[in-house]
Amino acid sequence: MSSDRLEKHTVLCPHCGQPVLDHMTKCPHCGGELTPAGYQPMDETKLKKIKTITFIVGMVIAVAVLVLYFTLR
User: Fold this and answer.
1) Does one domain contain both 30 and 49?
2) Would the pTM of this model clear 0.70, i.e. be above it?
């Protein structure tokens, strides 16, 4: 890998100032916690809503399969 390609993916660690790759979550030099570039954790309320909807859809599908199984039997 050429150094030019690698350089565009490096940032400075806010704790020690050493260059680190932009996707790292921990600095290999000082061990400081890093937030990867472009990463934004999902909002907790949105995540809970998605989990609830997924559970409901899964239950509806499971009930539909059971109903079909017992009616076609």
Assistant:
1) no
2) no
* DSSP line for 1-67: --HHHHHTTEEE-TTT--EEETT-SB-TTT--B-PPTT--PPPHHHHHHHHHHHHHHHHHHHHHHHH
Same domain, 10 and 33: yes
pLDDT, tens only, 8-17 = 888 899 999 9
CA end-to-end span of the chain, whole Å? Answer: 61
Residues with Cβ within 8 Å of 7's Cβ and at least 6 positions away in sequence, in order, are none
Q: How many domains does the structure of the chain reveal?
A: 2
- Dihedral sign of CA atoms 48, 49, 50, 55 in order: positive
